[in-house]
Each structure stands twice: as C-alpha cells, then as structure tokens.
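Retro notes - structure team

What went well: the batch runner handled both jobs without manual restarts.
What didn't: labels got mixed up in the shared folder, which is why I'm recording both outputs here explicitly, each with its sequence directly above its tokens.

Job 1
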Amino acid sequence: MDKALSELIRISKAVGNDSSLVQGGGGNTSVKTADGKYMYIKASGTALKDMSEKAGWRRMRLDSVLSIIEDKSIAGLETQNREIEVVNRLLLACDDQVTGEARPSVEAHLHSFLDKCVIHLHPSAVGAYVNAKNGKAELEKLFRNSGTAIKDVGSPEFLIAPLWVPYTDPGFTLAKKISELVDNYQKQFGKKPEILFLEKHGLFISAGSPDAALRLVRKVIKRCNSKLRQPKAGKIKSVSQEKINDVKRCIHKAFFEATGEHATISYFYDDEIAAFLAQRDAEKMLSAGVLTPDELVYANGPAMWVDRIERANIAKRLTQQIKKGERHGVAFLVKNTGLFVAGKKKIAQTVRDIVAYSAFIRTNAKQMGGICSLNKRERDFINRWEAEAFRKKVASS
C-alpha cells in the first residue's frame, strides 16, 4: 500500500470516530504523495471512520485537479452546468483501480492547493464561532497571537495565523475563493495557512505531515472549547417505555399524514439532548434556521420543537414546510422526553449527531452576538446541488 494512502486512512480514522469533530459522511481528508504527482482523498459521502485499504478514497492526478481552478471557461458556465462539469472533471482526474460509483470529494480541487496533508472537519467547537454573528471577532481574540510562536506544554511550537473565509457557496465557487485568499495569505506571511475557519461551514487544517495535522486539530479544538459552555453531564430523568412508544406512534402517524411515508421512528436521550431540552429558550434557538450545509443535507434542517404530543399539530407543521417548498423535518425534540428521528435506522444516528452538534452551536453562538444561519438563497443552492444529493444517497445506502 502506498505510504500516502496509509497515512490518509490513519488520519481519517483518528478524527472520524469522534462525532464532535465530524458527523455522518461529512468532512474530508487528503494526503499528497511524496513526488507531488498524486493526491489520495476521501470519497464523497463515505464516513471518515469507515475508510479502509479497499474503499472510501480515490487517487487523483494533482496537475489535473489544479487545472480545474485555473480553467477560466468553467467560471463562465451556468451554476448547475458548472458544478456538473466540475464533478466530471474531478472523476476524469482519478487514476486508480477503484470500481463502482465512488466519487472523489467534491472539495478535491480545494485540497489541491493546500499543504501535503489536509483535514476538513465540522467540529461543534468551531461551529459555535463560525455560526455566531460575532464569531470572527471572538476567534481573532482567541488567536490574538496570530503569526507568533505558541508553545503548549509537552508539544512543539507551531505558527498560528488563522485564515477566515466568508461564507461562499460550496463547490467550485468556494474553491476559487479560497484559492485567492490563500494566495494573498502567502504573500503576507510567506507560507500557506495552517488553519482556515469557514463561515457557516467548518474547519480546514493544512500541514506538512499527518502527525502535524492531527496535533493542530487537537490544539485548535482545545483552544476553541476553552471559551465555550459545555453541556453538563447529569442524571437524566427516566422516561417510561410506554410514553416513548406513545410518542413514536403519534409521530409516525403525523409523518405519514403529511408525507405519505411510513418511516421508522428512532429514539435518543442522553446528556447532550437532555441539556438542550432543559434550556428555556431552546425553541427560540431552533427557530433561528439552518446552520450549515450538513444540517440541511442530513437532517433536513433544525429539529422541530414539540411542546405537546398532538398528531394533528405535528402533521400540520410538516405540511406547511412542504407547501413552502422546504424540506420537511425528520427530527423532533419533544419537551421532557427526548429526540425522535423519522427515517432509516442507518441515517437516524447521523441525524442524532447533527442535532447534538446543532444544539451545542446554538447554545454558544447566542452568547456571541446571536446565531448566524443560512439564508434562503444559500439554502436553495444546497438543495439544488447534485453533489449534496449524491452525498446523502451514499450515506443512506
């Protein structure tokens, strides 16, 4: 096995098993070969933790990937045609023996111009800042030693000069934007950025080796968490099985009435869910809207707050979402009871992780000027983006 592939699998599993860092098939990783000719990258929609020697990645010719960003003719195409062209060009850049429908990450062209090892995650600790109205300012204070050596006990020194990336539609437009920002950064600091904070999105770590990248992930998360409110572990109030079953039946009927689908209803109740349910303004925080592309793709948006279990009311709210042209909810936070998820068992755990991730972000973002969510235009782009539909299909299969 190629050393670069071995390194890719190692870093992917190291971060992929922690739902506070990445949820479902989100995030991606890449490692470039020593000769600079190839890049191994995670396959679209595959969970990082599931990567193996045989599956979950693609090998790409680096010069072919870089040429996508440099091709001015692509930028002039209509949005949907442009994104399809990019997907096709990324597939043509693959040079491996992988069979089936595995696609390289749709952000492969973004990875191509960063350092040898790239880790892209959606950590809740970072989300709290990139989804807060004053998040950029708070990060600037948190990393105010930008560009100077920071020494942590027991760890080597490293340079921190984070790059903030304003929200940009994912895909080609985002890669082009970051390419320009990286060029400007390199002119200012004489090196490529190691830390990139993407508004309403997540975190990119770029380093010269897998170990350096993993160390930097841990350092950034530790620093971000140092100023955040953590959910308190406590004794969860017992909920009777009878009540759980009653709520499941009610949601199942309401869901069928609104959507025509007979969905399996899964139940989750733990410290993270309980802590959010206990907050007085939980419903208000959920009403702020969709936070990130992943919340929209995997959970169809924020969980629906349910004060009282009434089939007709839940069905009415789901129907209203559909009539507005929105994705109907699949997650239901029921007061004093827990989280209920409608859908396949395989995707239900991912939805649970997305809800917990979203709850943590909302709780902390409201302390930093308020919650910053995706607007309608941004949501519409994601809803129409074929790459996101493919990613969800892979994750659900």
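Job 2
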Amino acid sequence: MPTTSIHGTPDYAELDALGLDPAEVIYFSSNINPYGPPPSVVEAVQDAISRSFLARYPDSRSQRLREKIGAYHGLPPNAVLVGNGTADLIWLLAHAYGNQRQAAILSPTFSEYADGVIMAGGHPNHLILPGWQRISGNNRASFEQRRIQQFAPGRTTLDHTRQALESAAPWLVFICNPNNPTGEYLSPGALRYLWEGASGALWIVDEAYAEFTEDPWSAAQWVMDRGWIVLRSMTKDFALGGLRLGYLLADPSIIERLQAVQPPWSVNGVAQLAGLAAMDEMTWREETTARLRKEVWNLQEGLRACGYAPLPTTVNYFLVPVGNAQSLRDRLMPSRLFVRDCASFGLPEHIRIAARPPHENARFLEAIARLSADNAPHLEQRHIQ
C-alpha cells in the first residue's frame, strides 16, 4: 500500500521540473530552525572530516551520544536509542510493536504514525484531538485526498478524547506533543489525564517540537515508571536535516528490543559528531527559538492585515485556513516561496507556515498581499472553538 506521507522538505523532482535551484527557494513549508545549525556544530564537522574519518565505520550504537543525551534528561545511556531522524524511529517502533495490533493515533497529526503502523501490518485508529472534529470529505477532492480522513476545528474536548481512548482500548497510542501541524501543546496534567483512559497501552509521545515552545516540558519523566516512549528530534531545533538525527527515551528493556531490529550503522559518523557538538549549544537553541516566537507573532499579524485568519499556536509554525491549499501553494511557487499544503494531514483547506528570519517573512507577506490584490480567494474565518 502506498504511503500517504508528504513532507514540507524539498521535493527535488518537483524543483527540477520547475527549473528551480533548491538553494533559491524559501521553505516556509519546512518547520526546522532557520537560524541553524549552530556555527560550532558546522566547525566541529569541518574540523573532523578527513579521508580516514569518512572511511571509518561509525559506532553502531552511538554510545558517546547516548551518554550525553541521557545525562541531559537524567536517564542512563541504556534508556536512549539514537536513530536516523524521528521518522526512522517511528517506523522502527511500528514494526517492533504494531504488527496485527490496534494503534490509536490522536489526529489530525503527522501521517508517518499511521503509515508506519499500516506497513507493519497493524491497524491505525484515528481518535480526535481536543479542539478538532472529523468531517466528511469533499466529493470534488482527488481520490488520494478522499481516502485520507479529513478534519476541521471543532468542539471535541479532553473528556471526549479520553472517552474515545477508553472505548478503543488500543495496544499503542501515538501522540505528537506539541502537535504537528496544529501547534497545540498539552500540559503534563492533560496528557496524564488522557493516559488514564488507556493506561494499559504503550504510549509513544513525539516531542520533536517541544523546544520551540515558550515553556517546554518532557514526558521523559515517565519513561521509567510508566513505560512511555518519548521521541525527540535534533533535526528540527538544531537544523540537522541534511544529516538526519533523532532519538527516543524508554525503559532499557524497550531499548534492547528495538536495538535487536534496528539496522546496524543506521546513524552515520558525521551525524553522531554533529549531535555531540549540538548538545553543548542549549543557550543557542533557547535564543534562536525565542527569536522565532517573535517572528511567528509578526507573521500572523501581517497575514491578518491581508485578510487571513491564522490559528493559534505554541510553536514555530501555524495553520492558516485558505479554502484551497494546493491552489495557494501553486500560486506562491513562481515567487520561490513554498508553503505546506496540509491535505496529507486531512486538512486540504489549510496551509502550514513556519516562521523564518524577518527579511524572508517580509518577502512572503509581500507575495501574499499581491495575491490578495489580484482577487485571490480570501481565507475562511475559522477558529478553534
């Protein structure tokens, strides 16, 4: 079965067809830190690269990086597993635990959870996140869009979501917190309340965007006593997309099971080196993510001035209802500005925009203003109820 996942990262075949150089395009579609990687990470990689370094096999268990990550989270190294980005780890988890089992996926959210479960022979069950609702698909939508469940802002409450978890009695639960693409962030109390509705399940909490929030917290505090699995991405906050680097935190018994099925040398030596250097750059991360939160506010204000209604967010990206997301994406492409068409999330009337440095955000707002002046369809005034 083909996957439904589409990403905000460059589609090089599409760029080639359009005659565009990837370096000339501004990716508002890609929600990584635009101020990175940290200079010290680049320098560490440049200083280490040599013929012998490139010829040498990397540590297949990323032991030094596991030790450093574990110390940061207050966990032993054997509670850490490093992977080739969090998508790699999501698929590893699905294959280790999802075969012939039901997985609750709190939606709308990242499609890799469902795709990984399906490919592993499991059964994804999309339960609705608070603040959203499932809607009937548009009959005029493409077949690909119609086969993806569709969502809109709605009146689902925390109690409704917990009741759905109790009724579903899943084996696995996937939740993205903060959520991609909606930007909501559940508090420790809210997440614990949902867990009580399915406390027998294996909970997988994806915290790839936690460090973009003003007050980040981590469910890592529960991995040892409740058996939770926490996913973290270094690709996003440290801008290591070209290397791919992520990790998960879990009880050592879970780590041991995952290591048994993880391909050897799945994390290359350059990525491990960059990860070690990045772990020393927490101040840089705090400063740049604080800058991004200001840019989110400025970008949303600029969009409102053009007649759009961006939805609230806690992170560096946000949703904007536009009526026809693909159409607006296509109209921005000649300006070498890419936004995320959210059809693959089940949100074909929304785009996702990630904040970037001020001069790039200004260029984007100028392009949006031109489209509005040319009688481009205005966004529907939708808000989370």
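One thing worth noting from job 2: The first strand starts at residue 26 and ends at 27.
We'll revisit the folder naming next retro.
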